[in-house]
Amino acid sequence: MTKSEAEKAIRYMATKWARAAGVVKGQRDMPDFDEFVSWARSEGYGHYFDFRSTIGAMEDAERWFDEELGQAWRN
Predict the structure, then answer these.
(1) DSSP H or E segment with residue 64
(2) Of 19, 36, 48, 65, which is least packed with CB atoms within 10 Å of its CB?
(3) Distance (Å, whole) CA 60 – CA 75
(4) CB–CB of 74/66 below 8 Å?
(5) What pLDDT does 23 receive?
(6) In which element (H, E) is residue 36 found?
């Protein structure tokens, strides 16, 4: 899995998860990244979190999650 492949998939999944969870993009109530990861793993998407990264795959994934859901102000 390349980092760019993982980014595309994680961003797509974040949006899909947010819709299903009733999350409103950019709201101040922070969507829970851990809940998202648990959901992704339970849906069989856990392999998208396994890629090489200098800062760490989960850190990159959380940043993409935050950006996708309008939560980049948290970082």
Answers:
(1) helix 57-68
(2) 19
(3) 12
(4) yes
(5) 80
(6) helix 33-42
